[in-house]
Amino acid sequence: MSLLWKTFNMQIMLLFQKRSFKKMIIFFADGRLGNQIFQYVFLKTIQKNNERILVSGFDEFLTLFSIDDKTLLHFSRKNRIQRNLLYRIIKPFLYKVADVKLINSLTIKYEKILNNYRRESTSYIRSKGLVNRITLVKTAFFQSESLFNKELVNNLKIKNVYLKKAKTFLSPLKNNYLVFAHIRKGDYKNVRVYGKDVLLPMKYFHYCIKWFLENRKNCYFVFLSDEPEFIEKEFEYLNNKIISKNSYEVDFAIMTMCNGAILSPSSFGWWGSYLMKNRDVVFVPMFWLGWSSKIEYHKGAVAGYMREVEI
Question: What InterPro entries does this protein's entry cite (predicted)?
């Protein structure tokens, strides 16, 4: 523990000694790949000149993308000891320091929904601290395209190793109109939003598939799911389908190479569709994760190009 603490302090001191460095943003990430992408582009959007970004928890993000960002200093969350140091000691300490306004802070605003619940909004609050060189961005998901500069997305380059594997997987289907269907089940079985389930009924996916078959030629469906055996049984009537059993990195690359999409309310599929090179039609459940309560969650979660389907 002491060695990691010394290493952390040494890296911080080196940053301050660099003449080009004036200020820093500190952020502790939460969530998986899709969440990390939202968090990264938000941090880059608020970043000012000569401001470094110190972050922990972008492990999946940096595994997938080739990021040439010399302003980013990342502390991995994979090492258990380092993770405990960062999230159990350093994070609580910095939050207390920010709360008494010794350093700057940025906090996402929350809205009250249905009296007993709350959701992230599309705005945030900045608080000035005594030490103006450090800004703590408090952990949030920032899941709205209104919260990031769209030009920054051009800097997200998937590593060639995953692009090549995705192209190989799709090569037998190159003459088809490709539609990916991301069906997330697994961990969503225990998730509640506004007190209700978030698992989508299968009728939603069947409806979207029917639309593509009736409105687009030579459709071929690429299923991405954490329960491939279930998918095989549920969609056995479809001959023009393939079920991916690749890694999440290759699955993400596959999504970007499709023409159409049927999304579960997941940030993973959200970004897969956002980065599609030849994007046509993308279906999403109306109100996103809040589809069951008919109230959007998070606010602004549905991108402008997406077609909402009422369930």
Answer: Glyco_trans_11 (IPR002516)
Bridge partners for 284 per DSSP: 308
DSSP states of 35-79: HHHHHHHHHHHH--TTEEEEEE--HHHHHHB----TTEEEE-S-S
Give me the amino acid identity at 134.
I
Residue holding tokens 């996916």? Answer: 205
Would the pTM count as exceeding 0.85? yes
Q: Are 54 and 27 in contact (CB under 8 A)?
A: yes
Cβ–Cβ < 8 Å for 9, 119: no
Question: Crossing angle, helix 267-274 and helix 33-46, to 10 degrees?
Answer: 60
Closest CA to 58 of 108, 7, 43, 300: 43
Number of Cβ within a 10 Å radius of residue 78: 8
Q: Please say whether the beta carbons of 286 and 50 come within 8 A.
A: no
Beta bridge partners of 197: 192
Q: How far apart are CA 145 and CA 168, in angstroms?
A: 31
Q: How far apart are CA 169 and CA 243, in angstroms?
A: 11
Cis bond before residue 298 (omega within 30° of 0): yes
- Residue 228, SS3? helix
